Amino acid sequence: MPRGVTPRQPSRSGRQDKISSRPLRAKVKANRVAPARKKVVKVASAAARIAAPKKPAAKTKATTVKGYNPLAPERVNAILRRLDQRYPNATCALHHNSAWELLVATILSAQCTDVRVNMVTPVLFEKYPTPEAFAALQPEELEGDIRSTGFFRNKSKSVVGAARKLISEFGGQVPRTMDELLQLPGVARKTANVVLGTWYKIADGVVVDTHVQRISRRLELTKNEEPRKIEQDLMKVVPRDRWIIFAHQIILHGRALCIARKPKCADCPLEDLCHAADKTWSTVEIHRGAK
């Protein structure tokens, strides 16, 4: 063999053995085309999904129940009757002996339990028995006495400011009107309604605390979240002569059964009238918007 000449080796593809290349070409062609076809199918299906009209969202049963009206007088009256049966003597849980003591206790109850406030106020009122005694203080002097109620700096400013306002403009007497009460430091509609309704028996509005806010939405008596708007909604559906006791009953109900987490629905007298979405047990349909 001449030097430098390398014999040809058989090709792995078989071309050197005169094997037809057509099947190979067909196979390569098939391999090239198949992925393209799959991709086209995927694109087409995606396009079809985009072009296809969306299915309408499933309606809640509240809208499918024919003739259902959560604000119907018959339903509202049934709620009121059952609250009367369960909480016939409902009243304010804050201990007090005068309108001034109730005003102070209500200011202290913000972001605090009534139980804690009732532990603080007896010592507080024994130490400072009159509005004049509170008015003579600097807010810093009161902070230690009310520290356990939380937000004690703001509350001490409100109590001392309210006492000074009463002495200077109202002769030391707690006003009997909403407009005048709202002029006092630390007093909003909730506090004013508590004083007017509980002490003076004046129904000028509905007390809306966290319990009333939560339960009135669960019962579909309102769809609003702001206390002021919730109060307006409740004033439209609850008779005026029921405004005061209704709030007290709902507050008691919220503490006893209709708690924020895991309400005790199996023991609730309003269970078959309530369609709340966060019920823990139900014999009626659930309404998605009732929460």
Helices and strands in order:
Blueprint: H1 22-51, H2 61-64, H3 73-86, H4 99-108, H5 114-127, H6 131-135, H7 139-146, H8 152-169, H9 178-181, H10 189-199, H11 210-218, H12 227-237, H13 243-256
Radius of gyration of CA atoms, rounded to a whole number: 36 Å
What is the name of the CATH class of the domain at 99-199?
Mainly Alpha
Please identify which CATH superfamily of the domain at 99-199 we are dealing with.
Hypothetical protein, domain 2
Query: What overall form do the CA principal axes indicate?
Result: elongated
Q: Kindly state the mean pLDDT as a whole number?
A: 85
CATH architecture of the domain at 99-199: Orthogonal Bundle
Query: What is the helix fraction of residues, given as a range?
Result: 40-55%
CATH topology name of the domain at 99-199, in short, is: Endonuclease III, domain 1
> Structural class from helices and strands?
mainly alpha
The SSE string, one letter per element, is HHHHHHHHHHHHH
Counting DSSP H or I runs of 4 or more residues, the number of helices is: 13
Report, as a whole number of angstroms, the end-to-end distance: 97 Å
Number of strands: 0
Percent in strands: under 5%
Which parts are unreliable, with pLDDT below 50 for 5 consecutive residues or more?
A: 14-21, 23-31, 38-64
Largest sheet: none
